Amino acid sequence: MLAKLLTHTLFGIDARPVEVEVDISPAAMPKTILVGLAEAAVRESVHRIERALVNSGYQRPIDRIVINLSPADLPKEAASTDLAIALGILAASGQMQSEFFGDYSVAGELALDGTVRPVKGTLSMALQARADGRRGLVVPLGNARESAVVDGIDIIPVGSLAEAVGFFTGELPVEPVPFSWDEAVIEFGAYSIDYSDVKGQEMAKRAVTVAAAGRHHLLMIGSPGTGKTLLAQRIGSILPQLSPEECLETTRIYSAVGRLESGQSLMLTRPFRSPHHTISEAGLVGGGSTPTPGEISLAHHGVLFLDELPEFNRRTLEVMRQPLEENRVTISRAIGSMTFPANLMLVAAMNPCPCGFRGDPRRACSCSPMHIERYLSKLSGPLLDRIDIHIEVPAVPFRELSNSKPGTDSTMIRDKVIQAREIQRERFAKEPVSLNGTMSPRQIRTYCKLNKEAESLLKAAMEDMGLSARAHDKILRVSRTIADLDGADSIEVHHLTEAINYRALDRTYWSR
């Protein structure tokens, strides 16, 4: 007999439909043949599935079994096809019958005892099943909540092969998993950290506010222990809440790489990724024989924090240049080309010198000029040009550390950020961008016009600091954001002055 079922395999972060065909015919010797460009994890599943059938109380056919995974030219890598293959064997051997195989897609890995284990990427599978017009998707219990966020499709949770058989034969009614947005927000949408935890550093908080309002990239330079990491970690708490579309995009990436916490349905807080400086190029931007998302994609709609920036391999940092401009990264391999989203806010931190105390009034710097120059030269000019705001984070005086009066908290900053972003949303209503930090040169000329006095100031700053054309555009973008925070229609001289000050470290640390 021949049985056909529907399942999915991941290609990057996208789910591709796969048809599982199982044919059983008489043969002198039992033999199982798996075809359809199955990788090692899928080929090994044959033995796992056979024991799961027997240990679940079913019979393993003693005939010739041919399993075809179509389309034949699509690589199948994960074990998510286990459950579909097992059901196909049972149907082809006459141990079960079902009229629902064409209505539901199936995903799940089988344990030897017949338990259905969670798999990666069921959110993408649910989206693809809905796009293909399926009635529902049968998933492991552990994947039910993340899959249920997709409306318009029934998510059927099963804990074992026997439960899946019972559902398809109609002997075991299984209710679809419900999803409540409000309940998810209460459970997963709160931040546990706040800017009120950061003592002092009001100037740095102002720079962070500007960066968050326009989604500008930020570089903080300061001695160890001045609060650079604390400032970066709390940026998510001042950004607007993720929209449903942004939640779905971010969650789909985490689902595809298996990074969702157990029982989590959605990513409702902004991602914060802080990779170690020993990370490889593939780990940062994505890669592998079958490309998977890297840290810049895991930070999609969130913050990528690179602490100790000069300690990163220079070549590793340089591969970020194009994704920072295009908000996406494309990786090409022999099996195909994959594009991963990378719409993120880059926040970097570094010491002013190898010992970390250059310019510190309390401790003397022990670095020679040659050591400092070598340390700073690890960062290329093109990469620094792509970082809009450069600020110094000085040491906090004792009187501010011991002051019991709370500083600016996240709620106050977030209100300003949301107000500025609302202005930008209205401004760019008919444009493909929505934030000042992503304006194109044409849009900069349209929305960042300067009066004569401000234009003269910018010209003098360009000549004095030797800034590039890209830095010129960055200053105008930041100026527009500062004006939005003030609720001003046009860029005034004091807005431009503040924006230029955020590039003043170019002259102090780097000469171009």
Strand order of the largest sheet: 11-14-17-10-18
Task: Count up the helices.
Answer: 23
Cα distance, first to last residue?
A: 74 Å
What share of residues are in beta strands? 15-25%
The mean pLDDT is 92
User: Stretches where pLDDT falls below 50 for ≥5 residues?
Assistant: none
Count of DSSP strands: 18
Give the overall form.
elongated
Describe the structure.
The protein is of the alpha/beta class and 512 residues long. Helices cover 38% and strands 17% of the residues. The chain contains 23 helices and 18 strands. Strand 12 (286-287) and strand 13 (292-293) form a beta hairpin. The termini are far apart.
In short:
This protein is of the alpha/beta class and 512 residues long. Helix content is 38%, strand content 17%. The relative contact order is 0.10.
